[in-house]
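Figure 3 (text version): structure tokens given as input.
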């Protein structure tokens, strides 16, 4: 079953359960859930997952921090951020920090999780494809740089383990007598190579591969038929895959897992089969290269610097050989004595029947013109295997210009032909990829070096996006391809590409197309082939995405205006309350009641001021502390203008500090209470004094301090104060999850310290 294993991270248990049900039952995922970023990191350190889905807003470690921590250890695992619509900036930051996609939580969970599943599948498939290409590339490079079969086998084992995510691998190769033997091992214990285990495995592998080219076995099957692997090697599951090259079996590969007892998912099976084909090719190439090097060594020893078979023959029907070098043995399998004078067999009998007429015709034309001939054809060796050979020769004439024979050499070019076939196969694959890509692709060529790039090829997706057939566009210049007026950003990108040679990426440009105005994402790159230059244009239609983004921005703006209106109305309501309290204070003659009402008015003002700042601020979620505190102090000056008018207020506030409304309101109420107390009780009547307010941020801690140089607070009040004001301050500090301190010194100093992380204690 093609099952993608996903780690879902969210602190909301209801959403975790719902997401798990939808992703598993509807989309066939294997989902594991955790409630925090710390749990997710622990899971990832002990288990392998195909992708991670994380909420953004979580206590402790949020989704962005989790993403950064994951990217420090794993730069490839797909990561999808699952967040609310109001978190657009967070989504952009997540993409910049390495997230593959982000998905917004919709009102309908089924819609959101459908998009989420699509994004996860897309990211997982891309990562798997990239990993597979990297593994194949590394294997090809290692094979090209390796000179010995042992080195190539070791690289092949590593590639197979890396592709399958299994723990161990072994390669078995067949000899010329179809005997299978263990050749290379990686990840198994030394006992695996012992005769006892191999005597069981080799016949078993032969019988398995008679039924199928690939066999997957789970733990139950291994315990039943290969118990020794389970007990001695702790193998829970394994896979046996045949190694074939050009239809011929050359061996097999055995892969095993010490933990996983599930059959490999379909994508891994495809990747594994692809790498196994490449492994078989590299092993066969290496064996062929070893044979070729040995042949060349023999030829170089006998005939200076000439590979293959040197010959002299008559130009008759049988190509009667008068001389054949020792290279004939490696080339045909026959000793020179077997070929000279048509002893056994004739050389013509070795040539493939379909190639014989053409060979005679080519040689005849060459000798008639006294020219050299060169041709390729197939021969059968003594073991009835065919080879591709290249023959190059010339006619030999007597003094009367009569042909007396042919002289030349014949070399084996089978490997070259195979490589040519592989190149053709690779070219066909690239052509198929080019033709079937969803993105539009177009290739422009500069034949004459004059900067006029002409369209020479485009794929079907480009035809669909352009609304025109390729035949009507071929031969048009790059500028003509986009109509009469090429957009300036695209023209500038083309100029930069030609000037600096660096690829250009335009995330979105506006184009006039036959089907209307569209937004496109465009990528330009350049390559040079000899004196010619090519431009590769890859582009996609992102009109829907751009329109969706515009709708999102409009919606966010509308909600921002609504939230500002709410703050405005709250501020107005609080001002009404303040006015009512003022009227009540004017109606009473009791000084205690008047003081209580005044304190209430100040507290209401401290909250109303916050909503007023939010209403007039560009950032409707945070308040600049410096402006807020100065506004609060000015208000208190006006309220207590007649009392202690000689008091001087000093503020030392970090202008960069901003707080959200949840923490700004407690801070404002605390400041109001402590400054009011200092004005009322710290100084002698008509005495001069100083009140200092500081607010700083250092080492992830906020420090708010209110001090005066007055008569000071009694020690017993600091430790066991039970007044309403003291109780209010203590409760507000507790709400901030902070700590209140009373430093020793002249006057009174009260310090409140709290963490800059709202979720921290």
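Below: residues designed for each position.
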């Amino acid at each position: 079953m093609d099952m993608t294993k996903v780690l879902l991270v969210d602190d909301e248990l209801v959403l975790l359960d719902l997401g798990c049900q939808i992703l598993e039952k509807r989309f066939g995922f294997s989902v594991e859930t955790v409630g925090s970023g710390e749990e997710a990191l622990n899971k990832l350190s002990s288990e392998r997952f195909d992708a991670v889905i994380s909420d953004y807003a979580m206590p402790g470690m949020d989704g962005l921090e989790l993403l950064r921590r994951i990217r420090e250890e794993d730069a490839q695992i797909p990561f999808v951020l699952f967040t609310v619509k109001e978190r657009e900036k967070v989504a952009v930051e997540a993409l910049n920090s390495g997230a593959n996609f982000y998905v917004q939580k919709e009102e309908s969970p089924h819609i959101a999780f459908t998009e989420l599943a699509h994004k996860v599948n897309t990211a997982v498939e891309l990562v798997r494809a990239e990993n597979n290409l990297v593994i194949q590339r590394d294997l090809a490079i290692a094979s090209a740089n390796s000179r010995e079969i042992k080195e190539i086998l070791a690289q092949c084992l590593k590639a197979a383990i890396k592709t399958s995510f299994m723990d161990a691998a072994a390669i078995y190769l067949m000899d010329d007598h179809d005997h299978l033997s263990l050749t290379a091992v990686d990840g198994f214990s030394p006992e695996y190579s012992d005769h006892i285990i191999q005597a069981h495995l080799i016949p078993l592998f032969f019988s398995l591969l008679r039924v199928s080219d690939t066999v997957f076995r789970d733990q139950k099957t291994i315990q039943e038929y290969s118990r020794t692997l389970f007990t001695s090697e702790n193998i829970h599951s394994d896979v046996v895959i045949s190694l074939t090259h050009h239809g011929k079996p050359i061996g097999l590969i055995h892969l095993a897992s010490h933990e996983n007892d599930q059959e490999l998912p379909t994508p891994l099976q495809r990747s594994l089969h692809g790498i196994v084909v490449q492994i078989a090719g590299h092993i066969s190439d290496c064996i062929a290269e070893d044979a070729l090097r040995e042949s060349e060594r023999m030829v170089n020893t006998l005939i200076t610097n000439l590979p293959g078979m040197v010959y002299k023959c008559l130009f008759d029907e049988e190509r009667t050989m008068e001389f054949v070098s020792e290279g004939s043995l490696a080339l045909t399998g026959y000793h020179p004595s077997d070929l000279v004078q048509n002893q056994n067999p004739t050389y013509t009998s070795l040539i493939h029947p379909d190639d014989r007429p053409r060979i005679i015709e080519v040689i005849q034309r060459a000798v008639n013109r006294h020219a050299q001939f060169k041709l390729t054809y197939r021969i059968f060796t003594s073991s009835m295997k065919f080879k591709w050979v290249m023959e190059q020769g010339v006619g030999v004439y007597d003094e009367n210009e009569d042909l007396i024979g042919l002289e030349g050499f014949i070399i084996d070019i089978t490997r070259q032909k195979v490589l040519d076939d592989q190149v053709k196969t690779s070219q066909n694959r690239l052509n198929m990829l080019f033709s079937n890509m969803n993105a539009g692709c177009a290739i422009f060529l500069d034949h004459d070096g004059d900067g006029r790039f002409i369209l020479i090829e485009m794929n079907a997706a480009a035809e669909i996006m352009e609304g025109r057939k390729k035949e009507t566009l071929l031969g048009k210049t790059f500028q003509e391809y986009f109509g009469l007026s090429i957009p300036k950003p695209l023209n500038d990108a083309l100029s930069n590409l030609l000037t600096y040679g660096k690829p250009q990426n335009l995330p979105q440009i506006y184009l006039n197309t036959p089907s209307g105005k569209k937004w496109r994402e465009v990528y330009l790159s350049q390559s040079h082939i000899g004196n010619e230059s090519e431009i590769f244009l890859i582009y996609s239609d992102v009109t829907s995405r751009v329109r969706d983004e515009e709708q999102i921005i409009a919606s966010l703006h509308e909600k921002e205006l609504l939230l500002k209106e709410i703050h405005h109305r709250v501020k107005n309501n609080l001002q009404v309350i303040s006015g009512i309290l003022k009227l009540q204070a004017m109606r009473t003659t009791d000084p205690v009641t008047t003081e209580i009402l005044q304190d209430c008015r100040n507290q209401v003002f401290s909250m109303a001021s916050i909503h007023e700042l939010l209403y007039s601020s560009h950032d409707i979620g945070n308040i600049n502390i410096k402006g807020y505190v100065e506004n609060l102090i000015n208000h208190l000056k006006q309220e207590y203008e007649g009392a202690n008018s000689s008091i001087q207020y000093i503020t030392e506030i970090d202008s960069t500090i901003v707080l959200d409304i949840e923490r700004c309101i407690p801070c404002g109420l605390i400041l109001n209470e402590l400054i009011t107390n200092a004005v009322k009780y710290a100084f002698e009547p008509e005495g001069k004094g100083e009140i200092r307010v500081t607010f700083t941020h250092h080492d992830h801690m906020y420090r708010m301090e209110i001090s005066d140089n007055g008569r000071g607070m009694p020690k017993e009040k600091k430790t066991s104060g039970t007044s309403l004001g003291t109780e209010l301050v203590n409760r507000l500090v507790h709400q901030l999850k902070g700590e209140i301190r009373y430093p020793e010194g002249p006057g009174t100093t009260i310090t409140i310290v709290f963490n800059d992380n709202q979720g921290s204690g």
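The radius of gyration is 41 Å.
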